[in-house]
Amino acid sequence: PFLSPYMAAAGISATIVGWVAGVYGATQMILRIPLSIVGRMAGSHKLIIGAGLVVVSVSCILPMFSHSWILFFFMRALSGVASSTWISYTAYQLEGAGGEANRRMGFVIACNTGGICLSQIIGTLSYSYIGINGLFVIGAAGAGLAFLFLLATPFRKIKSSPSGTVAVAGTDPGGIAVNERGFSLRMFTEVLKNKHLWLCSILMSLANWVMFSTNFSFTGVFAQDVLGAKPFHFGVMAFMSQIASVAASLVMGRIGKRKLPEREILTVTLVGLGLYAGLTGFCSSIAVLVALQVLGGIMMSVPNVILFANVGRELSDKQQILSMGVFQSIYSIGMTAGPAVTGVFYDKTTSYPLTFLVLGGVALVASVIACALYRPAK
């Protein structure tokens, strides 16, 4: 929440700010499918997760040498490389999940969002004292701590049985998660032919288009330019969004899958996401904008859980990491194009209300698609 306002205050144009925010998704869009293939061939989620933590630590160290927008650009690109390993976090949870998919994904997304929330608290309390370089140091240290936890964490072995079901075989001596290895073009083609996967991917891409153009980039810039917000306020806004997201993820995870009218929930929450985006540009006080972040956090988190849990429901367990690669690569388009297009649009119109209304319209398009095409599991 601090980077985009920091660049804007330094006189960097909204177009460049959008490029820096968007490259985070661009590297994920490029890498997630190849990384899912590597994961299938290597059969090790732990190695992929560990590599991601090393890269994110490097990405935090890089901009400490210079605050040029070019180094910020490469920092966010490397962050995207690290975030591409999210496919292993999620595929590992879904392998053998069956009816537990919603619960598992609700929990892992809540943990992920909780970590982001913790970072917002630390950043909000410390930014004024240690500056943005201090936050980079904390980020690198956090990745290092996560790497140590990873080394000490055993992963279960998952192998495909002859019947095609997944058997959990305990933990190998090195604590590395072992999935059935191997990759074939036919297997990948079967994944690409799955219409439900494409629908979930498009919906997630549109939702990310909105969220990464608002909460993760231009909401803070708007608050600074129009409402006179300070770094403390950026942290509070991000915290309110993330804490609401954690709560929503946990609630979704505790509700049994059979009890969820998924299409209706998707439609309503995407409409809510559009409402959140559209109202942002009309906020007249920081307090109202902070309160609005609760709505944004909930309305993004609920579709997140549903789409992640159900994207590969029509595919076998050995195809989960490939389906995650395709899904996350496609939804990265929204993470990339959203902030980039939004930055250019604002520079052309110089109207925050119009810019955020257009983003609200993107979410409404997603809600119409969900209502018309999404079908619950049989």
Account of the protein in words:
The protein has 378 residues and is an all-alpha fold. It has 13 helices and two strands; from the N terminus they run H-H-H-H-H-H-E-E-H-H-H-H-H-H-H. The protein has helices spanning 3-9, 14-42, 45-61, 69-83, 86-94, 101-151, 185-192, 195-227, 231-254, 262-280, 286-310, 320-349, 352-373; strands at residues 156-160, 166-171. It has a two-stranded antiparallel ribbon with strand order 1-2. The longest helix is centred in the middle third of the chain and has 51 residues, at 101-151. The chain is globular and about 50 Å long. The termini are far apart. The model is unreliable at 160-179 (pLDDT under 50).
Q: What is the strand and helix layout of this fold?
A:
Elements: H1 3-9, H2 14-42, H3 45-61, H4 69-83, H5 86-94, H6 101-151, E1 156-160, E2 166-171, H7 185-192, H8 195-227, H9 231-254, H10 262-280, H11 286-310, H12 320-349, H13 352-373
Antiparallel strand pairs: 1-2
Q: Helical segment tally?
A: 13
Poorly predicted regions = 160-179
Largest sheet: 2 strands, antiparallel
Order of helices and strands: HHHHHHEEHHHHHHH
Radius of gyration: 20 Å
Number of strands: 2
Termini separation: 41 Å
In short:
The chain is built from 13 helices and two strands; from the N terminus they run ααααααββααααααα.
Task: Give short descriptive properties of this protein.
2 strands, two-stranded antiparallel ribbon, mainly alpha, 378 residues, 76% helix, 13 helices
